[in-house]
Amino acid sequence: QVQLVESGGGLVQAGGSLRHSCVASGLTFSSYAMGWYRLAPGKERELVATISSGGNTYYADSVKGRFTISRDNAKNTAYLQMNRLKPEDTAVYYCAAPRSGSAWSGKNYWGQGTRVTVSS
What we know:
The protein is mainly beta. It is 0% helix and 51% strand. The strands form 2 sheets. Strands 2, 4, 5, 6, 9, 10 and 11 form a 7-stranded mixed β-sheet that branches. It is globular.
């Protein structure tokens, strides 16, 4: 049984930083891409950042240069470092891993979600 357990998130002022962690179990972590989506009120779900099993990264334009995704295969953990946060980053953030292992098709394993609120 695959589990993705998230931590991090919270309330922060604009310009601040937060770090998400996502600990995976039930899969061969080193073989899976990892990523984060976010869902904000009134908006569609957005793929924020991904990291492949080989360490290649992708960022949405809205977070490029501010967010950094990384992974520690020895700890089965992925991280999302969020810097220079803006009020528009307010959302529930979901850790995810594609069921295929590599292709982001929407068929994912999901974490429980963590809320980020950025005040202006």
